[in-house]
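Why does residue order matter? Because the sequence determines the fold. Keep that principle in mind as you read this record.
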Amino acid sequence: MDLSIVIPLYNESESLNELNQAIINSLNGKNLDFEIIYIDDGSTDNSWSIINDLSINNRVCGLKFQRNYGKSMALLAGFKRAQGNTVITMDADLQDDPNEIYPLFQIITEQNLDLVSGWKKKRYDSIIFKNIPSKLFNWAARKASGIKLNDFNCGIKAYKSEVIKNISLTDGMHRYIPVLAKNAGFIKISEKEVKHHPRKFGKTKYGADRFIKGFLDLVTLSFIQRFGKRPMHFFGLIGTIMVVIGLIISIYIGYDKLFLNKTGRLITERPLFYISLVTMLMGLIFFIAGFLGELILRSKTDNDNYSIVEKTK
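Structure:
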């Protein structure tokens, strides 16, 4: 199969029919074998009923989650179901333009790229609550990852199938798929300016807090990128340094009491004693944290912590 289009959604019943028809129209006459995969992320409206109706077309299929697990898990389920050599993701709210699908497909196949990310250069979102925080977020992501993309969180992206089959996508990390791809060795990453439309139906499912979560996820990802496979190198190093500092302080106050100031205060009356004790205890805690991190890493289980209750076919 040439192309899989993966569309996560939550309560987007009003836009699904129009979106599906627009995708099919955009690919008509392109001589492509393609499929459209809808992932209903626990919608409470009639989105799943519409997906079932759309799946009468053999090119359309759907997955339904038991509850709302978030966009990352929805994408992960879609990636596992996708059969196309190229995979394109997009949002279901009609803000991503279906006419961008074929140009993205051409770029990634003709230029032999691993990933092409959309760039919503002209956005139709709130300047204060979306545009400005988005620019700050993307600046921080560029600095932390070294990937020169203007819009990390753009919903419409194109991937080689090898990319999405070889990255581990956990909750909240859909924003950083380019970073995960780079860390997995897929470095041929590019960008294409794409059209962005005002929301036609409903309201956005994301609040301003997503940028705070995004920055926290970026810190997590940066840490994992450097120490994810060797947590003892980070926690163990800090723990060892703190234990050594505490030990040096203890030796000093012991030497001072035994040889320099025998008639002075008791060791337990000196603030340095408690500083050395706390420092050594904290160092031991850091060391144990690194050790536990190594154990967890070696016993890591599957991240597919979602529950699909229905499939269209």
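DSSP finds ten helices and eight strands in the chain.
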